[in-house]
Specification:
alpha/beta; Rossmann fold; seven-stranded parallel β-sheet; two-stranded antiparallel sheet; globular
């Protein structure tokens, strides 16, 4: 079938297999151009490996340090008359490229929060790799089923304490309007922490540790975001921020558990980027559009792959993590540079629908969004028929 983008709100409901493959190839090229990562990871588990920062982490490990990788995700395969999700096509492209490069790659599609998937992955590590020396935790999900109680937790994107009103971007129309978000109520905070906090990261690490599949000197990293003050009511100080505080508490607990293995747990604070997750957060798309304009003019703009390559190459595996006062790695440092934030803040105060195309990079935002789903890539014939039901080599059936 011929596939075109179909956008509903902040989600694109279609994805293009050749486009996703081209996007993966471009990311691989970025890493390979930068050369081999000395002392990089060799046996890597990425939990949440099919899109965004998780996919970029898998690519950086495999093509930067020739690592064997296992990826875990929850994606929908395609059918003859229905495209798969982008993450499915991304993973197919990654595995094909890894195999062509002589690299081990195995993937698991299922509920990463479940005990059964954890058991399957651990069995594969024992069978194929023995142990892993890096565990990347990059899951982004709106809900989580507790593997013990069966309770379903649902996250919300809300401020805490009082309502929040600020500028917002309608990403479908390019209109800058005002939005008011009502505060969390009831057990919203606890529910969000249960989904987006560190509980599942801890369960994964406990299971891996108990199974003996963590190598001496193992590293594990989970991803977070802080951002500027303008986004704090909905992010840092909102329900998501409470979940990220929990993530940092888990990081400190994991440090103690990994000490006998000379291991280390990290939280990496990454840059604001257009991802499937960030597109859903009110206020953030407008901020990202303004940020892109400023950082591109400065020559400091990075996408997911540049961020993860820099994290691996310059922080995790260069004996130079440069933690902040809270022990977090900061690869949002270029975003948070004073001159960048001063200019973004000034433009935030000025921006309206009428001057948005001058002050913000809406074209860049839209392009980045469509690329997540395999659209707008050079060299792809979007008028041609494509097979939507292609499989992932390591996933049978």
């Amino acid at each position: 079938m011929i596939i075109s983008p179909k956008i509903r709100g902040f989600i694109c409901t279609t994805a293009h297999p050749e486009g996703c493959a081209q996007h993966v190839a471009e990311q691989i090229a970025v890493v390979e151009k930068r050369g081999f990562i000395e002392n990089g990871p060799k046996r890597v588990l990425v939990i949440g490996s099919s899109t965004g920062y998780g996919l970029a982490s898998r690519i950086a490990a495999a093509f930067g340090s020739k690592a064997s990788t296992i990826g875990v995700f929850f994606e929908r395969p395609g059918e003859i008359d229905r495209p798969a999700t982008a993450g499915w096509y991304n993973t197919r492209a990654f595995e094909n490229a890894a195999t062509a490069a002589g690299l081990y790659a195995r993937s698991f599609n299922g509920d990463a929060f479940s005990n059964s998937v954890k058991s399957e992955v651990i069995a594969a590590i024992k069978e194929d790799l023995g142990q892993v020396d890096l565990v990347v935790y990059s899951l982004a999900s709106p809900r989580r089923t507790d593997p013990t109680s069966g309770e379903v937790y649902k996250s919300v994107l809300k401020p805490v304490g009082s309502s929040y009103t600020n500028k917002n971007l309608n990403t479908s129309t390019g209109v800058v309007n005002e939005i008011t978000i009502e505060p969390a109520e009831g057990d919203d905070v606890e529910q969000t922490i249960a989904v987006m906090g560190g509980a599942d990261w801890a369960l994964w690490m406990d299971a891996l540790l108990e199974a003996g599949v963590l190598a001496d000197g193992v590293k594990t990293v989970a991803y977070s975001y802080i951002g500027p003050e303008v986004t704090w009511p909905i992010y840092k100080n909102g329900t998501i921020g409470r979940a990220k505080e929990d993530l940092e508490n888990i990081q400190r607990a994991l440090d103690l558990k990994l000490a006998p293995l000379h291991g280390k747990a990290w939280v990496s604070v990454n840059k604001a980027l257009v991802t499937q997750a960030s597109s859903a957060i009110p206020v953030v798309p407008l901020y990202i559009s303004l940020l892109y304009q400023v950082m591109k003019a400065e020559g400091t703009h990075e996408d997911c792959i540049e961020q993860m390559d820099r994290l691996f190459r310059e922080r995790l595996y260069n004996n130079s993590p440069q933690p902040d006062e809270h022990g977090r790695i900061r690869v949002d440092d270029w975003e948070m540079a004073p001159q960048v934030q001063a200019l973004v803040d000034a433009r935030w105060k000025e921006v309206t629908t009428e001057n948005f195309t001058e002050l913000g990079d809406f074209e860049g935002y839209q392009s980045s969004f469509l690329r997540l789903f395999g659209f707008g890539l050079r060299g792809v014939d979007y008028s041609a028929d494509t097979d939507t039901s292609v499989g992932i080599p390591s996933i049978k059936g």
